[in-house]
Write a structure and sequence with these properties.
Layout lengths: L1 E6 L1 H14 L1 H29 L5 H35 L7 E8 L2 E6 L2 E6 L5 E4 L3 E5 L5 E5 L5 H7 L4
Antiparallel strand pairs: 1-2, 2-3, 3-4, 5-6, 6-7
């Protein structure tokens, strides 16, 4: 089966976000950072109250509100940060073949990914995991990298017949 598709910067950004949100390490990191921020705010309130010898609760109230806001809005901040960092990484290096038009051949023994700069072949045994989301199929060839297959304009029934879904 031959599939032609175009990979954009947004496709790579969405892959990175998806991967972080699905990985155990990514989930743990986000949770830890959501909790550490409020602990720092409340610790700062305690230190300031002790240093200023204040017993008024207004200081704890302000830092408490900051803690709640941090906890609620940190995931959005983190998503913006990942988007910005991914764009920077894509712009910073020579990424020929990563973005642009791709042709993927799904064959009995594996897949072949072609673009204007070269080709890559992977046997189905080299595909560690197949993850299907609303708009993408990710064919993981390692724990941190995958072939990104946008579903735009694809006959997904036909594609699923070729994929080694385990």
């Amino acid at each position: 089966m031959k599939i032609q598709y175009e990979l954009t910067e947004d496709d790579y950004i969405r892959f990175n976000l998806s991967h972080i949100k699905r990985s155990k390490t990514g989930k743990r990191m986000i949770l830890l950072q959501r909790i550490i921020g409020p602990l720092i705010f409340l610790g700062a309130a305690f230190v300031l109250a002790t240093w200023l010898q204040e017993t008024d609760w207004w200081l704890y109230g302000i830092y408490g509100i900051a803690s709640v806001l941090w906890f609620l809005y940190y995931p959005k901040y983190f998503e913006r940060h990942v988007r910005k960092q991914t764009r920077r990484l894509i712009d910073e290096r020579s990424n020929e073949g990563m973005l642009g038009l791709h042709t993927m051949d799904l064959e009995e023994n594996g897949l072949r990914d072609l673009n204007e700069f070269g080709e890559a072949r992977v046997s189905w045994a080299g595909i560690k995991e197949v993850v299907e989301e609303d708009d993408y199929v990710y064919l993981y060839n390692s724990s941190v990298s995958a072939y990104i297959l946008p579903k735009r304009g694809l006959d997904m029934e036909e594609v699923r017949r070729w994929l080694p879904i385990r």
